[in-house]
């Protein structure tokens, strides 16, 4: 009952907050800060992306990133990125340079500029250059761009609408692209010699006011946007966040206060139920349609990530000829980028409908950069088709190497030394995810299948479809529904009686995997279906046996013996039923790299003991 009362209290707080009563007293200067990046000043309505901010101050779509002193902005359409050379707050102009063309004397423009519904306009100071590339047939007297000619193909540039009218360019050329440049930079007499410089000089856009922000701004507030709820807000000078304008609330504030106070428990209960309902509804529908995905991509897409059209993927993968494998979320194909780089293209099942796993994957993986985490190179959202493009891992998944005995294919088993290095590598990757500066990432699906090996057998964690970003440092999190793969899921994930879901849940999966590595290598006679629980209890049982008798193989060196022992002991620590008893992943690395003598024998985990009787009975020493 007290729990109910406290939730009522919390709820009433939110009730007030969302009815614009909550006095959030942080001043505007921290709400709507001014940033300096290189020579560019970024202030309202422009804002700098910040993964830990849900409420942003500025216009949606006006979010920029600052990287190495350069300001980067994505424009709608395909969210191609541009350097922001200048923002002029006096005459409301923006100078952009296409990121593809910087510092090139002969740039090949490949993106039309698209402004979507943003409050941006083409400036009257610009004129449009129209390019026609790879023309196979052309009038002989029209000069072409020499540096873009390939074989007998020619490419042309014109000031828009000054094309040679009596020639059908679109029919005879492969691609047309139209880009604006500053009028003053163009010498129409020498267009071909000067277009590169002109494009490097950038183009101007006029920016204006967002329509719905009118009432807020004219009442002295700053327009803000809630990325998660996709709602407009108004940041007012008195530090209060309001829905509409800053003026007409002083009277209604008091009115609302009475209404709020008068609201009976029934009212509260209704709110409570509604919020619960909305929440459960939100979690299944918020990312459902393409618009939400687009909004997500707009707000979170890192500039380095390329967007592909589906037909381009088809080209890259040779019409999806070469299937590499199949996961829970779709099929993976081998492909080759135009620059020759091999990639793995994961096409997500369209039937799954909601984009949650897509968003999880892009959001978590795109903000990571670690040698033990697979690199995301690009993505595709094209109608209902969604795909992710990763670096290619020639050695496939770890699973292949530890379930060797049950597979038809003969893959050479890895030596202990390699497996040990792989275990440490995975732990390092996890440590990186768990440590994250702003956002810690919980993977929730650590298993051999999701560990990929590069040409040197360096392990990389992949498949972030179930991952969860936690912005509050060190906090426990709530998740809806059990996630993960049976056999690797920590007990608390499917039954809260075991404890709070946290980074320790990944540690559990990691421990299971490590024991499986040891077990697989030892060719323990296992049930083939490695997702069955029987397999795991059996495996652990066997591991305990091994533990008591580690002289099991005559051809194992002392070093190997020690590595295996460390893996088993650390693994057993990781799979303690009570999350509290499990080490953090950093501690696991210490265990693996440290002295074997320092490793305590873990208490026997009671893996399938009934809820409510957690394993404390046997574990008194916590190694945290
Ligand atoms: C910043 O401005 C200075 C002086 O105007 C200029 O020399 C420099 O190149 C600019 N730096 C950048 C990154 O634009
Ligand atoms: C992001 O937001 C957090 C919390 O508001 C703040 O502490 C941090 O400094 C911000 N980071 C950047 C790069 O602005
Ligand atoms: C902004 O543009 C105005 C008018 O073109 C110009 O006078 C002013 O110097 C510019 N401001 C900056 C900071 O460049
Ligand atoms: C472009 O050239 C300038 C100076 O020549 C250099 O500072 C800058 O890093 C170059 N930018 C890129 C993207 O190569
Ligand atoms: C350049 O092209 C855009 C988009 O097609 C158009 O809106 C704009 O008016 C053009 N600018 C000029 C100066 O023709
Ligand atoms: C012309 O087409 C070829 C083959 O598709 C391509 O490699 C090349 O980049 C194209 N050239 C231009 C200038 O678009
Ligand atoms: C010439 O352009 C055509 C398309 O217009 C393209 O298919 C062909 O590959 C190009 N040839 C070369 C040598 O790039
Ligand atoms: C760019 O826009 C023109 C029309 O202005 C269109 O014909 C062309 O196909 C577009 N190019 C690309 C690459 O989207």
TrEMBL record:
Membrane topology recorded in Swiss-Prot or TrEMBL: Single-pass type I membrane protein
InterPro entries attached to this UniProt entry: Kinase-like_dom_sf, LRK10/LRL21-25-like, Prot_kinase_dom, Protein_kinase_ATP_BS, Ser-Thr/Tyr_kinase_cat_dom, Ser/Thr_kinase_AS, WAK_assoc_C, WAK_GUB
Annotated localization: Membrane
Gene3D superfamilies for the chain: Phosphorylase Kinase, domain 1, Transferase(Phosphotransferase) domain 1
UniProt-recorded name of the protein: non-specific serine/threonine protein kinase
UniProt xrefs under PROSITE patterns: PROTEIN_KINASE_ATP, PROTEIN_KINASE_DOM, PROTEIN_KINASE_ST
Main subcellular location: membrane
EC number of the protein: 2.7.11.1
Membrane-spanning parts: 254-275
Amino acids binding ATP: 346
Key words of the record: ATP-binding, Glycoprotein, Kinase, Membrane, Nucleotide-binding, Serine/threonine-protein kinase, Signal, Transferase, Transmembrane, Transmembrane helix
Broad class of enzyme this protein falls into: transferase
Catalyzed reactions: L-threonyl-[protein] + ATP = O-phospho-L-threonyl-[protein] + ADP + H(+); L-seryl-[protein] + ATP = O-phospho-L-seryl-[protein] + ADP + H(+)
